[in-house]
Amino acid sequence: MIIDAKNVVLGRLSSFAAKQLLLGEEVDIINCEEAVVSGKRAPIVENYIRRVDRKAPTKGPYLYRNPAFFVKKTIRGMLPFKKPRGQEVYRNVKCHIGVPEGLRNEKFTEIEKAGAGKLQKADYLKVKDICRQIGYNRG
User: What integer best gives the mean pLDDT of the chain?
Assistant: First the structure.
């Protein structure tokens, strides 16, 4: 199953992907950097910066700055990862920045009722913007 994350709320995307993984599907998520987190900009960025700038960086928790790994870690939070079943199904998820060459001609699944269409511009923030704020340097 290939899911397009463009303008989809990250939490709803993650729960949908986790459910599909637990049902036995292999899930590819494209355009991870275009997923959105709902809420006001300042508190969201402040929260993630606080989580990254902990006083003991070698002891975790670790927060990925790459949008693909950022989304993948969110999906992991929706799975029973501390149990063997959760770890097995977590291997079946792949997150991509943009659309890779091998998946260009495939049919994408869109998640209904998970889009950010009803949200106002000030009420959400894209994953790529969050990742740039916490230290991601690419494009």
Answer: 89
